[in-house]
Amino acid sequence: MSDFYFSNIVLIQSTFTVLLLALSIQIQFRMGVFSFAGAAFYGMGSYGVAILVLHYDFGAFSALATIVVICAMVGYLLSLVVQRLNGLYLAMATVAFVMIVTVVAHNGGTLTGGSVGLFGVLTPVEISVPHLLAVCAVVVAAMIVSERGAMGRRIEAVREDPELASAMGINVARYRKMSFVLSGVLGALGGGLNILMMTAIAPENIGFPLIVLALTIIIVGGSRSWIGVLIGALIFTWLPVVLEQVGTYQSIVYGVIVAIAAIFMPGGITGIVTDLYRRRSARSNADAFESEQRLEARAAEEDAAEAAELQAELASSTTPSGGSR
Amino acid sequence: MTTELVRPQPDHSGPDAGDVLTLDDLAVHFGGIKAVDGITLGLARGRISGILGPNGSGKSTLLGAITRLTPLTRGTLRFEGRDYSRVRPEAVARLGIGRTFQTVRLLEDLTVRENVQLGHDLIAGARPWWRRPGKADRETADAAVATALERTGLAGKEALRPGQLSYGLQRRVEIARAIVMSPKLLLLDEPTAGMNRFEREEIGELMADLRAEGLTQLIVEHDVQMMVDVCDHLFAMNSGRLIASGTPSDVVRDPAVREAYLGRQDNDDRDS
């Protein structure tokens, strides 16, 4: 076990930082907000922590906390700027935001390290996998709470039918704003933890490729639940390692797997499992109904027979008087 | 042709001081189309009022305007004396106005029970955010949802999803979701569409029960007989304007209403 851990530590770290990245985009999709801002927050988190540690001598935790707060605030401000946009227009606006972050990283001079990026981000407290797992556990717990009970129902209503949600007293605009703030928090956590463990960042590590990676994870794993995102993160972090055996055809096989998943699993892997479960429970509900209806019909038949018997008895007892009339 | 059908606003349609809801010169225009054009009326407390009118007469737009989901062009909305013409749609639900929709709007991924619980969440949402629902809160919520399901004839169907229900049953889920909100005013947009005669009668009985409990209701419905049977007061609309108001028997006998529904009498005579 420990051999496996130490020989694959980078992949294990990547799995969970990529999980945070994908959740930063999925949380917005869950609230019906078609935004890729999470990829920008991931980049801001990486560069922000690197800048605070290298240029301002911040510690690991203070740098991470600072950048999380900054990204949450930027998320809120971004939500105000794009509050009137929806669908593809909103997606394009947030892609532009991701591009702006990349351009700033490229042209930030000594602050961002330009095209070379920043490296040697070392802090007295070494951030490692247990820290990452602790953060992911808290995030997943929050996700579980948000998917259940009243909060889960409200989010479902906001995504599926905003007008209905309003009629139910739900402030849809507030949920949209909240999705940007949460995306900022999750993206910054993912990016910040990534730089603290990898110690180096360059412009090619952020930007549009992160959108493609997160979208692939969400589509294949399933967009409705954190479990789908975790499954997607596991698959797409470890798949390239498995595909090393096919050598130069790696990209083609990767692409085919993604295409097949998108075509034949519109709800992702979790969507298939959910569908199967629902079909099964629907069948058992239908069976329960049928047997209940059969019982009711039998009871009605018995009642009718009893009534007919009673009527016949009454008729026979009243015949003499009827006959005398 | 249509302008000939529009008559001046009847004097007796005006609101009274004790009305739960009052509309004053309410108008909703979509560009050049006057979907609602200068409606003034009041809904008496604890009564069932109905709005009759042919397709496209502006009935559902009026409900949209009352719930603020449709922006007003002009006019004033008052609920229990308070002007709410400028509040956001979600605040209208919190005032105590519940509604159903013309086309069924249920969340397909939620069960019947969860769809109804969504209505009760409004009441639960009034709790401060730091106070998690306790056992007593959950029991109260469960009891309220169970009662709403029982009253709408949905007991036993809690675990099903809307896609597994007939259209009539889906309508009942909408009604259950609206009444579980404990509204002070219930707006029902074609509540019996897709239901058979017996089901319509059941819904009519439910409305009568709710009236007996003091709930004010406003119904938009095509079924004239049901409106006559259930409503205490009827309003008739055509081309976005109010063309009649009064007791159900008076309104259905009103020549302007008959004309709006059946066309001009002289045309009918010629045809026959």
UniProtKB/TrEMBL annotation, chain A:
Transmembrane regions listed in the UniProt entry: 6-25, 32-54, 60-81, 88-107, 127-145, 180-200, 206-222, 229-246, 252-273
CDD domains given in the database record: TM_PBP1_LivM_like (cd06581)
Superkingdom of the organism of origin: Bacteria
Keywords of the record: Cell membrane, Membrane, Transmembrane, Transmembrane helix
Main subcellular localisation: membrane
UniProt-listed InterPro entries: ABC_transp_permease (IPR001851), LivM-like (IPR043428)
Subcellular location as annotated: Cell membrane
Keyword Transmembrane annotated: yes
Membrane topology: Multi-pass membrane protein
Name of the protein: Amino acid/amide ABC transporter membrane protein 2, HAAT family (TC 3.A.1.4.-)
Organism this protein belongs to: Rhodococcus rhodochrous J3
UniProtKB/TrEMBL annotation, chain B:
Ranges that cross the membrane: none
Coiled coil: none
CDD domains assigned: ABC_Mj1267_LivG_branched (cd03219)
Pfam short name (any one): BCA_ABC_TP_C
Lineage: superkingdom: Bacteria
MF terms in GO: ATP binding; ATP hydrolysis activity
UniProt GO cellular component terms: plasma membrane
UniProt domain ABC transporter: residue ranges: 21-264
Keyword terms: ATP-binding, Nucleotide-binding, Transport
Protein's UniProt name: ABC transporter ATP-binding protein
